[in-house]
Amino acid sequence: MFAGALTAPVVITGPTGWIGSAFLALLAARLGPGWQRRVTLFASSAREHIAPDGSTVSLRGLDTLRPADVEGAIVVHLAYLTKEKAEQLGERQFTDTNLAIDDHLLAALADATPKAVFVASSGAAALAERGVDRHPYGMCKLRQEDRFLTWGARAGVPVLAGRIFNIAGPYINKVESYAIGSFISQALTRGRIQIDAPLPVFRSFLHVHDLCTLVLNALDQQVGRPSAFDLCGAEVLEMSDVAQVVAAQIGGAIEVVRAPVDLGRASAYLGDFTQTKMLGMALEHRFAAFDAQIGDTLGWLQASHATIQKTVQDETNCASA
Asked: Is 19 exposed, middle or buried (0-12, 13-18, 19+ CB in 10 A)?
């Protein structure tokens, strides 16, 4: 899973989401006991956080990030407002806040020489670049790519600006916001999966472990790219295909229900897997098949559900005592 010994310190901004959690889990596995001493984490505010391995890690406020923190480090930049925040905050505040997030890191980088930097961009940037969707999120991500790639070229530091499309696997959060999470949740709780999309919806999925492993190993080996590139899955799947794989993984009589679809139009949010594969080939990485991705997502959600149920039961028992 990992290539060589990881000797550089690691800095991660925004480590509490789905991808951030996967990075922490992989770092804990790779670095072993005391891994927290090798990793510096930044979030919107200073606080304690429970990592996936159950250990407590300290998060520093992003406004405390300094050149000494990133000097010689592998830097993984995940911090950003999510797409739904644009509707809540309005375009101006959404844009200004994201610019400020990047400003904190760029200011530190200006007076330091990190080993390499990863910027978590989005497929939304590709849509904005093509003029297909000019949503503020995609426009912000497009600007973010340009700022960090320009800095890297000027500073002579390897930068990866990866346009992430759809992912699967453990540590999924906001379960109902993702088709995979919603389908698994429906199957487990109702014994059926309902697909509401009135038109064909095409997606491809990259295992979150593949994403994080590729990035970590690339940065460790100082592999950069002069322009943004796609991080996506190999297999193009329609939502009915996804639902059928979920149903098969769970087993039993899981019914998939869907009204007739309009075949005169479609939604396709797909990256170019050849770009992901080329990075994988450079790093000798083997990608997880979609069945394994669903299995790992399912296993995580089942374990999380069991933990929640046990906690609720324990609290109930304490209240009754």
From this structure: buried
Residue 304 has what pLDDT? 79
Domain housing 104: 10-311
pLDDT surpassing 80 at residue 98: yes
Q: What is the pLDDT of residues 147-171, one digit of tens each?
A: 999 999 999 999 999 999 999 999 9
Verdict on whether the full-model pTM lies above 0.85: yes
- The answer to whether position 241 is within a domain reads yes
CATH number (domain holding residue 186): 3.40.50.720
Q: How large is the average pLDDT for residues 115-141?
A: 96
Are the C-beta atoms of residues 11 and 76 closer than 8 Å to each other? yes
**Is the pLDDT at 234 greater than 50, yes or no?**
yes
Our count of domains for the chain comes to: 1
DSSP-assigned letters across all residues of 154-218: HHT--EEEEEE-EEESTT--SGGGSHHHHHHHHHHHHSEEEE--SS-EEE-EEEHHHHHHHHHHH
Q: What is the dihedral of CA 62, 67, 69, 71, to 10 degrees?
A: 140
Report the C-alpha gap between 217 and 213 in whole angstroms.
6
Query: Which stretch of DSSP H or E encloses residue 109?
Result: helix 91-110
CA gap 229, 271 in Å, rounded: 9
CA distance 239 to 123: 18
Digit-coded pLDDT (tens) for 168-188: 999 999 899 999 999 999 999
Do 15 and 80 form a contact (C-beta atoms < 8 A)? no
Evaluate whether residue 319 is within a structural domain: no
In this structure, are residues 169 and 299 in contact, taking their beta carbons and an 8 Å threshold? no
pLDDT digits (tens, 9 = 90+) for 15-33: 999 999 999 999 999 999 9
Give the Cα separation of 115 and 75 in Å (integer): 8
